[in-house]
Amino acid sequence: MAIPVRPRLLAALAPTFLGCLLAQVTVAAGTPPKAFNLTWKSMNFKTILEWKPKPVDYVYNVEISSGSSDWKIKCFLTPNTECDLTDEIVQDVRRIYQARVLSVPRNNTYLGNPPLTNAPEFLPYRDTKLGQPVIKSFKQVGRKLNVTVEDPRTLVRRNGTFLTLRDVFGKDLSYTLFYRRDASTGKKEATTSTNNFSIDVDQGGSYCFFVQALINSRKINQKSPESITECTDQWRSIMGETLIIVGAVVFVVTIFIILLSIYLCKRRQSRAGQKRKETSPLRVA
Ligand SMILES: *[C@@H]1O[C@H](CO)[C@@H](O)[C@H](O)[C@H]1NC(C)=O
Ligand SMILES: *[C@@H]1O[C@H](CO)[C@@H](O)[C@H](O)[C@H]1NC(C)=O
Ligand SMILES: *[C@@H]1O[C@H](CO)[C@@H](O)[C@H](O)[C@H]1NC(C)=O
Ligand SMILES: *[C@@H]1O[C@H](CO)[C@@H](O)[C@H](O)[C@H]1NC(C)=O
Ligand SMILES: *[C@@H]1O[C@H](CO)[C@@H](O)[C@H](O)[C@H]1NC(C)=O
């Protein structure tokens, strides 16, 4: 029984062991491996550089520069495989940034140049992805449906205050509203270059809708994910709620009346019984 288990265990351990051995050998040879698969993860300007592999017996330095400026070390002697570069890239979101990851010994002393890998160029204004938009409020009055989209704050600052997405992108940012009347399948859309929609709808109709952000100047990463869907069935939901409450009240009152009448009935019966008991011995005597 134990015989088939051991080879399996060995087979499972072998890659770890080999990887360890390989890392030992490369470190011993004085050259930690290069980082690879450098990827920017950026949303609404929050920006993190990620790479591989997890280091064994060495660490990483991450450097960033824009244009002709010098390399600036951001994550120093880090054992992680990601580095938050938001602070740097929000200084000017219309600049192109270069970043690189250097593999260095833990004591940061090495002969010659450490192995390094360059990240793809990063232009925040063009490359940061748009987060999922949020419908802040909506209101349907008569033939008008008004929808307001939240304008999220970014980490980009100007004169000490944080800018919203709209502040950064201006009219380059638009929102599309996709809407349809409750039962119908025909989807309509409207676009605004503000955060407000005011669209014409059928009176009394109930509508479902979601929004999506879009940067007009972009070729890639142009659209955000879709917001969650909201519906203006407030009339029906108010009615529904009212009916449920009225129903509950009627139910409770009915039960109360039934219990009360049973109680009163019993009391009258027992009183009548007692009277009979009180009077009967007299009759017998
Ligand atoms: C590195 O990235 C490439 C493409 O970006 C992918 O095909 C490959 O699987 C990645 N390697 C690892 C080890 O994740
Ligand atoms: C730094 O670490 C490397 C590898 O771990 C080692 O070869 C080297 O001697 C160390 N240098 C100093 C100054 O400690
Ligand atoms: C809807 O928006 C329009 C245009 O902005 C405005 O005139 C109207 O008062 C708004 N209606 C409601 C109910 O907010
Ligand atoms: C920043 O503030 C200075 C003075 O406080 C002002 O002159 C400048 O216009 C402001 N810049 C922006 C972009 O608001
Ligand atoms: C958008 O709508 C909100 C709420 O209805 C209102 O406070 C805001 O002033 C409107 N903004 C514009 C640009 O119309």
Automatic annotation (TrEMBL):
Q: How does it sit in the membrane?
A: Single-pass type I membrane protein
Question: What residue stretch is flagged as signal peptide?
Answer: 1-30
- Its domain of life? Eukaryota
Name the cystine pairs.
C75-C83, C208-C231
Q: Tell me a GO biological process for this protein.
A: blood coagulation
Q: What is its main location?
A: membrane
Q: Which residues cross the membrane?
A: 243-265
Provide the alphabetized UniProt keywords.
Blood coagulation, Disulfide bond, Glycoprotein, Hemostasis, Lipoprotein, Membrane, Palmitate, Signal, Transmembrane, Transmembrane helix
Which intervals hold domain Fibronectin type-III? 16-109
| Gene Ontology CC annotations of this record | external side of plasma membrane; extracellular matrix; extracellular space; serine-type peptidase complex
An annotated Gene Ontology molecular function? phospholipid binding
Q: State where the protein is found.
A: Membrane
InterPro entries recorded: FN3_dom, FN3_sf, Ig-like_fold, Interferon/interleukin_rcp_dom, Tissue_factor, Tissue_Factor_CS, Type-II_Cytokine-TF_Rcpt
Q: Where is the Interferon/interleukin receptor domain?
A: 128-233
Disulfide bond as UniProt keyword: yes
Oligomer and partners: Interacts with HSPE; the interaction, inhibited by heparin, promotes the generation of activated factor X and activates coagulation in the presence of activated factor VII.
| Protein task | Initiates blood coagulation by forming a complex with circulating factor VII or VIIa. The [TF:VIIa] complex activates factors IX or X by specific limited proteolysis. TF plays a role in normal hemostasis by initiating the cell-surface assembly and propagation of the coagulation protease cascade.
The record's family statement is:
Belongs to the tissue factor family.
Provide the protein name: Tissue factor
User: Lineage, please?
Assistant: Eukaryota, Metazoa, Chordata, Craniata, Vertebrata
